[in-house]
Specification:
- With about 325 residues, this protein is mainly alpha-helical.
- The protein has one domain.
- Helices cover about 80% and strands about 0% of the residues.
- It contains 13 helices and no strands.
- The longest helix is centred in the C-terminal third of the chain and has 46 residues.
- The chain is globular.
- Pfam families: EamA.
């Protein structure tokens, strides 16, 4: 990994990114437009912002094989499905419940990585995810006491999290063969087209929205996407993926605080308990996962050093 320092301290950039993505649910709650319209314009505006900088990657785009194009299409469909389900969940449940459930993304990535890539996780890491799952059950149980709509929102958030996990697993395979910037742009465009087709088929209006809604669409594309997700991708050249992934824990915390201050949302004691279990379990998982990566890196380093020492021991 490149150890050069960014122009701004990593910790400050991470804080900016966490605050930015925490605003995503707030903007969605503020909008009265359908979730599919919000998702379409969020992706479209972000793609327009990224497009002027894609020229250096044009050669890589033309060199893509048919299999890669099909995987890109599938990844875009999964991203659109994630936005549709997760953004839709906020119509029925609280910001806190939805974002805490979405933080379970590593659970589904771990399962998918085992099925697709035969990657195994440490037992201690798995136990941390088990605690997080129990926390989600607590959140859902607390929502049942509020209304059936809240539980519906929780389920939509779960399915949306499964969709984004599939999107990331496909991306893990593709970014090994193509620039991550190009991958993100193409997937954003594909997902935007999927949303456009969905809205057209459902008879949802494309343009009949007041100026306030267009402002929210622009904020969704700039704040949580550019200053959130794209910023985190950029930070990978300066710090470890494990450090960047800690934003998974930061988003529900930031979103809960913002929802309390800006939306007046409050949680029951059971939901707070569930949220603490989710965050604690995920923190344990990420910590154990980072230790496993460090051990594997140390073993690889030792294996690389062995051939150099063999001739000396033989003499």
């Amino acid at each position: 990994m490149d150890t050069k320092k960014p122009p701004i301290p990593v910790s400050l950039l991470m804080l900016i990114g966490i605050v930015a993505i925490s605003f995503s649910a707030i903007f969605i709650k503020w909008s009265s437009a359908p979730a599919s319209i919000q998702g379409m314009y969020r992706l479209l505006f972000t793609s327009l912002l990224m497009f002027p900088f894609v020229r250096p990657y044009s050669g890589a785009a033309s060199a893509l094989h048919l299999k890669d194009r099909l995987l890109l299409t599938t990844s875009g469909i999964m991203l659109a499905l994630h936005f549709l389900l997760w953004m839709g969940s906020l119509e029925f449940t609280s910001v806190a419940s939805s974002t805490m459930i979405m933080a379970l993304e590593p659970v589904f990535i771990m399962i998918g990585s085992y099925i697709l890539y035969k990657e195994r996780s440490a037992v201690s890491a798995i136990s941390g995810l088990g605690v997080a799952i129990i926390g989600v059950v607590f959140i859902g149980w607390g929502d049942i006491g509020l209304s059936s709509d809240n539980l519906k929102g929780d389920l939509l958030s779960i399915f949306g999290t499964v969709a984004v996990a599939a999107h990331l697993l496909i991306g893990k395979k593709l970014v090994a063969r193509m620039p991550s910037y190009l991958y993100s742009l193409i997937v954003f465009i594909i997902a935007g087209v999927v949303f456009a087709l969905y809205n057209w088929a459902a008879g949802i209006a494309f343009f009949d929205y007041p100026p306030r809604e267009w402002g929210i669409f622009a904020l969704l594309s700039i704040v949580p996407t550019v200053f959130g997700h794209i910023l985190f991708n950029w930070l990978l050249q300066y710090t470890s993926a494990t450090t960047v992934s800690m934003n998974i824990l930061g988003e529900p915390v930031g979103a809960c605080i913002l929802a309390y201050l800006l939306l007046g949302e409050r949680l029951s004691g059971l939901q707070w308990s569930g949220g603490l279990l989710v965050l604690g379990g995920l923190a344990s998982y990420l910590y154990m996962g980072s230790r496993k990566v460090a051990r594997e890196a140390e073993r690889r380093h030792r294996r690389e050093q062995e051939p150099e020492t063999l001739p000396e021991s033989a003499s």
